[in-house]
Every structure is written in C-alpha cells, then in structure tokens.
Write a structure and sequence with these properties.
With 343 residues, this protein is of the alpha+beta class. The chain has two domains: 2-80 and 92-253, Thymidylate Synthase, Chain A (2-Layer Sandwich), CATH 3.30.572.10; 265-337. Helix content is 40%, strand content 19%. It has helices at 15-32, 77-89, 101-107, 120-126, 129-139, 195-212, 234-244, 265-283, 287-294, 300-312, 321-327, 334-337, and strands at 2-4, 9-12, 35-36, 49-60, 67-70, 73-74, 147-149, 166-174, 177-184, 187-188, 216-230, 252-253. Helix 6 links the parallel strand 10 (187-188) and strand 11 (216-230). Helix 9 runs antiparallel to helix 10 (300-312). The radius of gyration is 20 Å and the shape is globular. It starts with a strand and ends in a 6-residue tail after the last helix.
C-alpha cells in the first residue's frame, strides 16, 4: 500500500491488498466502536449493528487483479460471469437467478413481475450511457464529462424499497490509459457482500471501454461513503483475515482480456448476446448447440466464459469435462473459471 499525495488517495496494488487493509481496520472496530443503525426498519434485522468505516477513497493500481481465490473468500467464476452478462445487457432478473434465486431475492427488492426494482445495467443502458461515454472519450480523449449515472432522483426519500449501492461511474483518459472512478454509498465487505463481484464487474467495465478505445486500463478508483461489515459476519471475516495474512499461493487471480489492438464494440456485444444464448442452451442440456455457437465467438475471453457455463451445467455427455478444462485459453484465470464442487 502507498499514499499518493497528488490525489490524496490510498493506493493498493490489487484487490487482496485492499481487502487485507480494510478488513483489519473493520475487525479492530469491533472492540472500540459499534455503530447502531438509526433506521427503524433495520432494528429487527441483521443490519441493526454494523462496523463501519466512512468516506474512504482508494485506488487499485492493477485493475486486472481483482479475483479472490482464497478458500475462505472466493470469487465464483460462473457467478461473476452471470453478473457481467446481466449488467452489460440489462438482463432482469439477473442471469445468476437461474441458479441461485435465493441470492437474488435476498439481494434485491423483487417486484410482483419477478424483476428487481433496479439493475445497474438497466440504468446505464436506458440512455445508451456506455455507448455515449465511449463515443465521447473517442472524440475527446481528455473529456471530464464521461459519467454514467446510476442513482436517480426517484431513489431518494422515504418509502423506497431498494436503492443502488453503486451510485456513479466516471472515466478519464490520460497518457493513453483509461481510469475509472466508482462512487459507492454503501458497501458490505462481508462474505456474502458485494465486494467480490463489484470489483470484478468494475474491472470488466473499465477494461471494456479501454479496449474499445485501443487504450490501456489505468487505475480503478473507489470513493465509499460507508464501507462496513455486519456483526453476523465478523467471525467469518476473522477467518478471512487470518488467511490473508498467511502467505500462500493462489490468493488472487486476474480478470484479463488478453487481446491485441483492442476489441471492436460491435463484435464485443455480438459475443455477449451469443454468450447469453449459450448459457440458456447449456442450462437446458443442449451442449452440442452451445458448443457450435461457442466456436463463432470473436474473443477468447468470451469463449472461456462459455466453457464455464458448460462446466457449471454438467454438459459432460456432450463434451468431456477434461476437454472443456483443457480448452480454457486464458491461463491466468483458469483457477477461478473452473467451477468446484458446491460452487
């Protein structure tokens, strides 16, 4: 960890270093300060007592290294891929609800039609914010107006059943690199909180826009109003903290595009739409058709994503598991791609 005096920002080399630093501080808070929720709705829920750090600003200098590969704190590949697909395509209910509806219903206020009150993807696709941000930076690389707004005026006030935790994405392009700034009003760093997947999704969005621009991804910045762990999760996070401070291999993996000369935005979205179809085919045990469609994908990261769904959905009658595993093309992330038992 370093301190960048120019930006008044803590800088971490990767996601693990950030987790180690903030988790250590949160655990120490347990003995010194207990912040009780003042929201009467929370008084009879697990949210009634939290350990909270407020107004934290930090950066991850290598935005590709955000995949946790600890037994005690693992980023499940199929879940992150489903999260990415859902947000990039505005899929509501999200793709992961096909596998873990309990997580979906526990994470969102589910409406009568079975949809969540919001998904980030619906918000930033509503006005083509991603496309407009890309086009703005392509036309004016030093623009300060590259902003994707998620939190809206109708999320304010009483009576709102669910609000986005991430409020805004901002981008700038300096010295051939694209940086991303993520504003968070509330961020749960517990074992079932959003950190593992928010980091992965943010990395994917940053790398996408940088790739379309033919630029390198720069730093991944976060401003967090409330960075916290709930009382119910403290014991589990103590185990994570112990694991983080016990040197061993395999703590972290990378989410990395590994593509020369960037991606074409049209081909990128062609691949994501086909990947959504491959997920459906593999879930319905139509592995042969899924494999045929996989061969038409333009970029190897999406071919790897597709193979994860083949593994997740046990399509071994069409393709041997070893064959799928051996076909994974991105060496740096094989370990978290391959679903383990009970993933």
């Amino acid at each position: 960890m370093t301190f960048n005096s120019e930006s008044d920002c803590l800088e971490f080399s990767d996601g693990t270093e950030a987790l180690t630093y903030f988790l250590g501080k949160l655990i120490k808070l347990r003995d010194s300060a207990k912040v009780k929720s003042k929201n009467p709705v929370n008084q009879d829920t697990y949210k009634k007592q939290i350990y909270e750090l407020t107004h934290k600003f930090f950066a991850i200098t290598d935005p590709k290294k955000v995949i946790f590969d600890l037994k005690e704190y693992k980023t499940h590949g199929w879940f992150l891929i489903s999260e990415i697909l859902s947000e990039m395509l505005g899929k509501n209910p999200p793709v992961y609800a096909n596998y873990r509806d309990d997580i979906f219903s526990g994470s969102y206020s589910v409406q009568a039609d079975g949809r969540a009150r919001y998904l980030y993807g619906e918000r930033f696709l509503e006005n083509n914010s991603i496309l407009k941000t890309f086009e703005l930076l392509k036309k004016n690389p030093t623009s300060k107006g590259a902003v994707i707004q998620i939190f809206q005026h109708y999320d304010s006030g009483e009576g709102v059943t669910d609000r986005p935790c991430t409020t805004q994405y901002q981008f700038d392009q300096r010295d051939g690199k694209v940086n991303m700034f993520v504003s968070m009003r509330s961020w749960d760093w517990g074992p079932t909180g959003g950190v593992k997947y928010d980091l992965g999704l943010s990395s994917f969005i940053l790398q996408s826009i940088a790739s379309w621009l033919g630029a390198e991804p720069g730093k991944l910045f976060f401003y967090v109003k409330s960075l916290h762990v709930y009382e119910k999760d403290i014991e589990a996070m103590k185990k994570v903290n112990t694991a983080l401070n016990y040197p061993r291999p395999g703590k972290l993996s990378s989410l990395e595009f590994e593509v020369d000369n960037g991606m074409e935005i049209g081909k990128f979205y062609d691949d994501t739409r086909k990947l959504l179809e491959i997920e459906t085919l593999s879930r319905n045990k139509m592995g042969n058709k899924a494999q045929e469609l996989l061969q038409t994908l333009n970029y190897k990261i999406f071919r790897d994503f597709a193979r994860v769904y083949l593994l997740k959905n046990n399509c071994s009658n069409m393709l041997e598991i070893d064959e799928i595993q051996n076909a994974l093309e991105t060496d740096s992330i094989k370990s978290w791609y391959i679903p383990k038992k009970n993933d």
